[in-house]
Amino acid sequence: MVYSVQIIATVDGIPVEFAMLPGCYHDFDGMKSMYFNLPENSTVYGDSAYTDYLCEDIYYEAKNIRSIIAPKSNTKRHHQPWENFLIANSRKRVENTFSQISSMFPKRIHTVTVDEFLMKVILFIFVFTSNEKFLYK
């Protein structure tokens, strides 16, 4: 079975929330399953797979969390050039975080059940967040 992991990370690459869903789900379903337990006035950057104007508006109205999502070619909400720059840089940081977490994985993760596999992946994320050598200073 294939799983995808969706992560909300700080600008320093520290994961603060994550969701694990079967691979058949769309990326945005992972974002919808998160609590967004973030400070007010936070900004969340994402790629175009997370485009959902209704959810962006709800997050903003509920907790003043602004979503800046990479535009699709047919976008209704255009960004300033500086916002596009921030989107690109934040995506690189998240991709780097994923690379660092997956570099800690062994070549094979031996488990008997799906629950065991998911628990091991969660533990790798927790170890990553507590390991200072991976974090930016």
Which descriptors would you attach to this protein?
single chain, 137 residues, alpha+beta, two-stranded antiparallel sheet, 4 helices, 42% helix, globular
What does this structure look like?
By secondary structure, the protein is α+β, with helices and mostly antiparallel strands. The chain has one domain (3-134). It has helices at residues 27-32, 53-63, 81-103, 114-130; strands spanning 3-9, 15-22, 43-46, 66-69. A two-stranded antiparallel sheet has the order 1-2. The protein has a two-stranded parallel sheet with strand order 3-4. Strand 1 (3-9) and strand 2 (15-22) form a beta hairpin. The longest helix is centred in the last third of the chain and has 23 residues, at 81-103. The mean pLDDT is 83.
Secondary structure: elements and pairs:
Elements: E1 3-9, E2 15-22, H1 27-32, E3 43-46, H2 53-63, E4 66-69, H3 81-103, H4 114-130
Parallel strand pairs: 3-4
Antiparallel strand pairs: 1-2
Q: Round the mean pLDDT to the nearest integer and report it.
A: 83
The SSE string, one letter per element, is EEHEHEHH
- Summed up, the domain count is 1
Helix content: 40-55%
